């Protein structure tokens, strides 16, 4: 869906982005992760030509973006920024309807679509449509910005630190809603963040950047367990335990779990409903912590088996896996 080949951007003889390449497949979420000034936002803005690359090639859906007028290109790409970019003198409904007006949609079609999206984002049009941005909380404003980016149903969504201006509690809540939004299941998304936890939660693939270059690209598990160099290893050190347990799923420790935790021996320990083996170890341990230290039933669809895990068995299997890697 998105292909970038050897793209660079030079500002005043300084390479903000230095000869990077990547590919984002249709329906995937790729995260550009790194500290301030690493080139991740510049990279994102080159994809919709808010900034033009100094060199290199970019295509979206097989089409060279440099063969298209920037204004036409951007109509097929949703964009959400950290500052939300809402027009203060427009109501919620008017803000969400900006792109449909440019596309000359019928008013009834625009209203139906706005209502559908705002309902999904827990901002019913009947209650919030007439309100102005300064009457909304930060989380509500960002939900409106997401609705505006999605209203024309673009196949691609670009997000620049979309939750960065929110307080930690609101940020976690909006991020959870974002993950559950049906609209996003078939979108191709490129998201910029400096938040490692956010990158691990949202990204199918992550490009870790430093000084304008991609230092390592891969899954969260690749980056945390198979770092390409010292920079990658130390970048994650301050949250390593949490990140490793978030990157690993029950299926990763399935074959090294103590046999006495099989369903035959632990059927009476469980007070939870079954979860899938693709669930992260961290999420499983949170479930156990919330309900007390009982057993958690986990089903592995690939093997057709069911096992029960306790906090101690997860920790033991994790340590064993670490020793073998």
TrEMBL record:
Keyword tags = ATP-binding, Nucleotide-binding, Transport
* Entry coiled-coil feature ranges: none
The membrane spanning regions, by residue number, are none
Q: Which GO terms describe its molecular function?
A: ATP binding; ATP hydrolysis activity
Q: Kindly give the SUPFAM superfamilies that the UniProt entry links to this protein.
A: P-loop containing nucleoside triphosphate hydrolases (SSF52540)
Q: Where is the ABC transporter domain?
A: 2-236
The answer to whether the entry has keyword Cell membrane is no
- Pfam families found in the cross-reference section: ABC_tran
Please name the InterPro entries in this protein's record.
AAA+_ATPase, ABC_transporter-like_ATP-bd, ABC_transporter-like_CS, P-loop_NTPase
GO biological process terms, semicolon-separated: quaternary ammonium group transport
Sorted alphabetically, which PANTHER family does this protein's record hold? GLYCINE BETAINE UPTAKE SYSTEM ATP-BINDING PROTEIN YEHX, OSMOPROTECTANT IMPORT ATP-BINDING PROTEIN OSMV
The UniProt entry's sequence similarity note says:
Belongs to the ABC transporter superfamily.
Q: What is this protein called?
A: ATP-binding cassette domain-containing protein
Native species of this protein?
Answer: Dyadobacter fanqingshengii
């Amino acid at each position: 869906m998105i292909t970038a080949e050897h793209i660079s951007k030079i500002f005043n003889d300084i390479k903000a982005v230095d000869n990077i390449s990547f590919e984002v497949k249709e329906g995937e979420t790729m995260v550009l992760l790194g500290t301030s000034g690493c080139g991740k936002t510049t990279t994102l803005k080159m994809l919709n030509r808010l900034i033009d690359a100094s060199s290199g090639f970019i295509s979206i859906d097989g089409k060279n973006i440099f063969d298209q007028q920037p204004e036409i290109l951007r109509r097929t790409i949703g964009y959400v920024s950290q500052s939300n970019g809402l027009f203060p003198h427009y109501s919620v409904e008017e803000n969400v309807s900006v792109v449909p007006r440019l596309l000359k949609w019928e008013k009834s079609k625009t209203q139906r679509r706005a209502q559908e999206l705002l309902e999904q984002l827990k901002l019913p049009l009947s209650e919030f449509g007439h309100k102005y941005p300064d009457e909304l909380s930060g989380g509500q404003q960002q939900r409106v910005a997401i609705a505006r980016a999605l209203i024309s149903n673009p196949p691609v969504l670009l997000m620049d630190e979309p939750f960065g201006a929110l307080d930690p509690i609101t940020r976690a809540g909006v991020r959870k809603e974002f993950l559950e939004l049906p609209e996003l299941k078939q979108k191709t998304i490129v998201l910029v963040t400096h938040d490692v936890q956010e990158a691990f939660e949202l990204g199918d693939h992550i490009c870790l950047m430093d000084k304008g270059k991609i230092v390592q690209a891969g899954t969260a598990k690749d980056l945390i367990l198979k770092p390409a160099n010292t920079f990658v290893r130390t970048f994650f050190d301050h949250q390593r335990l949490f990140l490793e347990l978030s990157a690993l799923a029950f299926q990763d420790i399935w074959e090294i779990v103590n046999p006495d935790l099989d369903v035959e021996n632990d059927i009476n320990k469980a007070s939870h409903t079954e979860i899938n083996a693709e669930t992260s170890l961290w999420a499983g341990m949170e479930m156990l912590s919330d309900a007390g230290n009982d057993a958690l039933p986990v089903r592995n669809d690939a093997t057709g088996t069911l096992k029960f895990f306790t906090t101690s068995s997860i920790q033991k299997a994790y340590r064993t896996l670490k020793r073998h890697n």
